[in-house]
């Protein structure tokens, strides 16, 4: 009789362990589902770009971000890629959530490229293949100005870039951004053959992109405002009058980071 009691107690203990373990597993599943749901754009359509990357990492195991543009996207002027605006944003995102612990940003910046040249196959094909969740397109208008690309051709190239990436990768959130402010022009006259200054290209592309309803970040204006508020001189942020030095790239990253964390509004939901 005692033997049967002992067996009954063992069976009861086993059942209790099974159900307790099962309940714990269900609690973990519910917690994970709740975490994912809190970052799901279906429930937060105006979510930040940073939260969207966290959501994508939770959902698929990794998040992907790419940047394309000219030499100031490539990182010319910095002492190390970790010092560029891309490198610093990458670190900020890694530190923002455990889901992004191994997150990287692929760099498709090319020195001397205009916005027209950003459409060349060797630039676009790797980005399309990557299917990034977020794509930053620096407008490359420093080179457009220096190399006498007309505003019409500039606008047409931005149209083509948006259409290419939005059609090839419909779930990618595309963000245009201007380059940094400059002090001198070592690659061309202050006024190009169209009688336009570099800042004319910044202002005109800014107005055009906003008119199309595309997401845009005014790096140029944000950096100038930040430096003015902190009494930082523009020349002290540049290596050669055009490319940022480490200090300049830090200012760029400092003004861009809050933009990634703010609600964006009207960003497309993933399909």
UniProtKB/TrEMBL annotation:
The molecular function terms in GO held by this entry are: hydrolase activity
List, for all copies, the residue spans of the domain called SGNH hydrolase-type esterase.
69-251
State the InterPro entries in the record.
Answer: Ester_Hydrolysis_Enzymes, SGNH_hydro, SGNH_hydro_sf
Q: Which UniProt keywords apply?
A: Hydrolase
Which Pfam families does this UniProt record tie to the protein?
Lipase_GDSL_2 (PF13472)
Instruction: From the Swiss-Prot or TrEMBL record, give the protein name.
Output: SGNH/GDSL hydrolase family protein
The organism is: Paenisporosarcina macmurdoensis
């Amino acid at each position: 009789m005692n033997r049967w009691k002992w067996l009954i107690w063992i069976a009861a203990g086993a059942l209790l362990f099974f159900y307790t373990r099962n309940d714990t597993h269900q609690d973990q599943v519910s917690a994970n589902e709740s975490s994912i749901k809190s970052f799901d754009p279906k429930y937060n359509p105006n979510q930040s770009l940073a939260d969207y990357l966290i959501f994508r990492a939770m959902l698929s195991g990794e998040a992907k971000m790419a940047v394309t543009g000219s030499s100031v996207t490539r990182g010319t002027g910095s002492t190390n890629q970790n010092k560029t605006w891309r490198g610093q944003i990458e670190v900020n995102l890694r530190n923002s959530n455990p889901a992004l612990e191994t997150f990287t940003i692929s760099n498709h910046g090319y020195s001397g490229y205009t916005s027209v040249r950003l459409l060349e196959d060797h630039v676009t094909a790797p980005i399309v293949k990557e299917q990034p969740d977020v794509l930053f397109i620096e407008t490359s208008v420093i080179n457009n100005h220096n190399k006498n690309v007309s505003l019409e051709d500039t606008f047409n190239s931005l149209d083509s870039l948006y259409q290419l990436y939005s059609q090839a990768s419909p779930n990618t959130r595309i963000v245009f951004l201007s380059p940094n402010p400059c002090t001198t022009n070592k690659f061309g006259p202050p006024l190009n053959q169209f009688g336009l200054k570099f800042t004319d290209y910044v202002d005109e592309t800014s107005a055009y992109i906003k008119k199309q309803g595309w997401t845009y970040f005014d790096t140029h204006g944000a950096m100038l405002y930040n430096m003015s508020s902190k009494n930082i001189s523009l020349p002290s942020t540049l290596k050669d009058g055009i490319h940022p030095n480490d200090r300049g790239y830090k200012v760029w990253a400092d003004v861009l980071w809050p933009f990634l964390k703010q609600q964006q509004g009207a960003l497309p939901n993933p399909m």
